[in-house]
UniProtKB/TrEMBL annotation:
Enzyme Commission numbers on file: 2.4.-.-
Superkingdom: Bacteria
PANTHER family: GLYCOSYLTRANSFERASE, POLY-BETA-1,6-N-ACETYL-D-GLUCOSAMINE SYNTHASE
Ranges of residues in domain Glycosyltransferase 2-like: 5-101
Name of the protein in its database record: Glycosyltransferase
Keyword Glycosyltransferase: yes
Single GO MF annotation: glycosyltransferase activity
Gene3D superfamilies cross-referenced by the UniProt entry: Spore Coat Polysaccharide Biosynthesis Protein SpsA, Chain A, Tetratricopeptide repeat domain
Residue segments, region Disordered: 361-383
Length: 383
């Protein structure tokens, strides 16, 4: 069986740290907590879990802090988490099995990272991360902000173990402060930094400025196609908020330059046609989404509901608007399989059954009875 050091960097995490450590402390052989300047009860909480607590002077560089934390590890493998991450019970069980059976030749284990959740508690958006790595490989973190662990070589294992992100608070101001300091120090933002800077501008609703940064990024070299695809999605989101629908659609279609069509982009394109009340085109793109497999090894952000219930919900609406109520009913039923307790879907089912029964009986709708399903709001962008 392998041994595992859990390495974390923290600062003022008293609200969430115990929740995180409760979910993982008994799975690992060592807990290393690198504190970058807490003034609350963070260290006190960490000590209750027999963590080794080490201070690190914060230098506005997340990669530096994470590399320092990795350097303190003593076990054969290193796992990293943020304080607002947790392992759900099913993932704890999977992790224990992995720990007991992981072949020694594996250098990195990729796990899913669930970022948001739907009303049934299922993952709605997520990505993947190199989450457990062999210490002897000396893998390093890069980038002061939006840091990433570079695993460019070695034996990588892909698993369905998930870390669930239960975010508390908003870090956008902190991230923007770090970017602005880099700019003030004379560092020109390029590549991934330019992309992530644009993301921060979106979070602060500076959409016109974000458009400029995304455009600059997309004009640069393609080092990682996933970033360019997501930049197209975020650019579309900006144009949505700026009311430029033509450019929104163009931005989404631009993503096909970098990868084959994906369900999340097809759904966003379909919604563009919904806004135009071009029901047949919206139906085409939602049905296309249903025929696509989720990427097997994508490390980028995926809108996971586009591979489950969202196309069915939207197809129910589009078919109803087009007067095809039997198809609307069928897709509402498929959506209910994913969200059996959703009140809107259950109400749709009742209303559609009533209308279809009247039609099958050769009757006419009575005044006041619904002819079409109500609109449902969907995010204007892909993510």
């Amino acid at each position: 069986m392998i041994t595992v050091s859990l390495c974390m960097i923290v600062r003022d995490e008293e609200e969430v740290l115990a929740r995180c450590l409760d979910s993982v402390a008994d799975l690992v052989d060592e807990i290393v907590i690198v504190d970058t300047g807490s003034v609350d009860r963070t260290k006190e909480i960490a000590s209750a879990y027999n963590a080794r607590i080490i201070d690190f002077e914060w230098v506005e560089d997340f990669a530096a802090a994470r590399n320092f934390s990795f350097a303190q590890a003593t076990q054969s493998y290193i796992m990293w988490l943020d304080a607002d991450d947790v392992l759900q019970e099913k993932d704890r069980e999977k992790f224990l099995k992995l720990k007991a059976s992981l072949p020694q030749e594996v250098d990195s284990v990729v796990m899913e990272y669930h970022l948001t959740f739907d009303m049934a508690g299922n993952a709605a958006a997520g990505s993947r991360r190199n989450r457990l790595v062999k210490r002897s490989r000396g893998y390093r973190w890069h980038n002061p902000i939006h840091e990433y662990l570079e695993v460019s070589e070695g034996n990588v294992m892909l698993t369905d173990i998930a870390v669930s992100h239960k975010r508390v608070g908003d870090h956008s101001d902190r991230n923007m402060r770090i970017f602005k300091k880099q700019i003030a120090d004379g560092r020109e933002l390029q590549g991934r930094d330019l992309y992530y800077f644009a993301n921060e501008l979106v979070d602060q609703k500076q959409y016109a400025e974000a458009v400029q940064s995304y455009t600059r990024f997309l004009q640069g070299p393609v080092e990682y196609s996933e970033d360019h695809m997501l930049a197209c999605s975020k650019l579309a989101e900006c144009y949505h908020h700026l009311g430029q629908k033509d450019k929104k659609l163009e931005s989404l279609l631009m993503a096909f330059k970098y990868e084959a069509p994906r369900a999340d982009f097809c759904c966003s394109i379909a919604f563009c046609f919904e806004e135009l009340e071009a029901w047949h085109l919206a139906i085409h793109w939602y049905n296309m989404a249903l025929g696509l497999e989720k990427p097997a090894f994508s490390m980028g952000l995926l809108n996971l509901v586009c591979w489950t219930w969202l196309p069915h919900v939207q197809l129910c609406i589009c078919y109803a608007k087009a007067g095809q109520l039997q198809q609307a009913y069928e897709h509402n039923e498929k959506a209910l399989r994913h969200l059996p307790d959703d009140a809107n879907l259950r109400d749709n089912k009742r209303r559609l059954e009533e209308i279809l029964q009247i039609q099958q009986a050769g009757g006419q709708l009575q005044e006041g009875e619904p002819e079409q399903m109500p609109e449902q709001e969907q995010d204007g962008g892909n993510q």
